[in-house]
Amino acid sequence: MGILPEHKIFWCFLLLCAAACVLQPVMAENGTITIAYRGSGGGYIGDTIVFDGRNTFGNMTLLKINGPGLPSDGVPVNNLNGPSGTATSVGVDQYGMWKFVWYASTIPGLERLQTARYTITAMDSENPEQSTTTSVMLKKPEFYITVSPNPSNPGDYVELIGTAEQGITSVKIEVTDASGKVLHVFTSPVGSSGYLSYGFHGDMEPGQYTVTVSNPSIKVPYKTVLSVVAPEETLPVTTVMTPEPGSAIPTAEVTGVVTPAPVSETSPTKSPVAPLTILVALVAGVIMAGISRHS
């Protein structure tokens, strides 16, 4: 057998290289991100709602909310006054699970919510294109008040404006500090239409205070947060939340589970050059062996 002509060697080499590129193994991982909430699918503005889900893309999930009264790009779920497009960070445990308890009655900007359906978006912090959503119907409660200005400065005149169920003639307003100590108790009349308005001069030091509106005929009192800051000082916002250890996988009681679209396979960090290099080396070895036998 003679030595293969140079042009045949070239074409054999070219075909084997093409085969190596086509037949190299697929080395990619699938990921999952889900969001669910516990409950009937709706509630009053200010209710506590538990959101949880799975994230196998990374160790941090981002949550934001958008809807009527909020920026279209969404805001952090734990600060509705936060910058547009930002989100709340929620840690992912070793099992790929995350959990966030939304204590909505205590978050800044709650007065921006209306009776409407709101969308909660969950995304991976490192791969924000990997996201999923769910929605929840919220409605104004039997009591509803807004605090203005909020945040306020020490000594500012603070006005509470809101509505209550018709038939209620008065409400009790309590202002408590972070420890739960009652600082002020007011009684405000309620008009026949349910409208109420009450004002007072704030004498509290900088901090966050809970304003509670109640009436014996209403089972659940309404709460909102009044922030007092020093003049020319901005209110610090913390967006990192840590889930409870050992968060359970959502069970049958979870409603509104959103199944994300199948994630397309992507190339991992391993280099695809290795199989091609091995094949090229084998081909070169066979050709050199043939040349050696016939030289």
Question: Which labels suit this protein?
Answer:
37% strand; 4-stranded antiparallel sheet; mainly beta; Immunoglobulin-like; 295 residues; 7-stranded mixed sheet; globular; 3 domains
What would you say the CATH architecture of the largest domain is? Answer: Sandwich
* Strand count: 18
Q: How large is the radius of gyration?
A: 31 Å
Instruction: Indicate how many domains the architecture comprises.
Output: 3
Strand content: 35-45%
Distance between the termini: 11 Å
CATH superfamily of the largest domain: Macroglobulin (MG2) domain
At the fold tier of CATH, the topology name of the largest domain is Immunoglobulin-like
Class derived from helix and strand content = mainly beta
Mean pLDDT: 75
Helix content: 10-25%
Report on the biggest sheet: 7 strands, mixed
In brief:
The chain has 295 residues and is mainly beta.
Task: List the SSEs and their pairings.
Blueprint: H1 6-23, E1 35-38, E2 42-44, E3 48-54, E4 60-66, E5 75-76, E6 88-91, E7 97-103, E8 116-124, E9 131-139, E10 143-148, E11 157-164, E12 170-176, E13 182-189, E14 195-201, E15 207-214, E16 222-228, E17 240-241, E18 254-258, H2 273-294
Parallel strand pairs: 2-9, 6-17
Antiparallel strand pairs: 1-3, 1-18, 3-7, 4-5, 4-6, 4-8, 8-9, 10-11, 11-14, 12-13, 12-15, 15-16
Helix pairs in contact: 1-2
Write up this protein.
The chain is mostly beta strands and 295 residues long. The chain is built from two helices and 18 strands. The strands form four sheets. Strands 2, 4, 5, 6, 8, 9 and 17 form a seven-stranded mixed beta sheet that branches. A four-stranded antiparallel beta sheet has the order 7-3-1-18, with no helix packed on it. Strands 13-12-15-16 form a four-stranded antiparallel beta sheet, with no helix packed on it. α1 runs antiparallel to α2. The longest helix is centred in the last third of the chain and has 22 residues, at 273-294. The model is unreliable at 18-28 and 234-280 (pLDDT under 50).
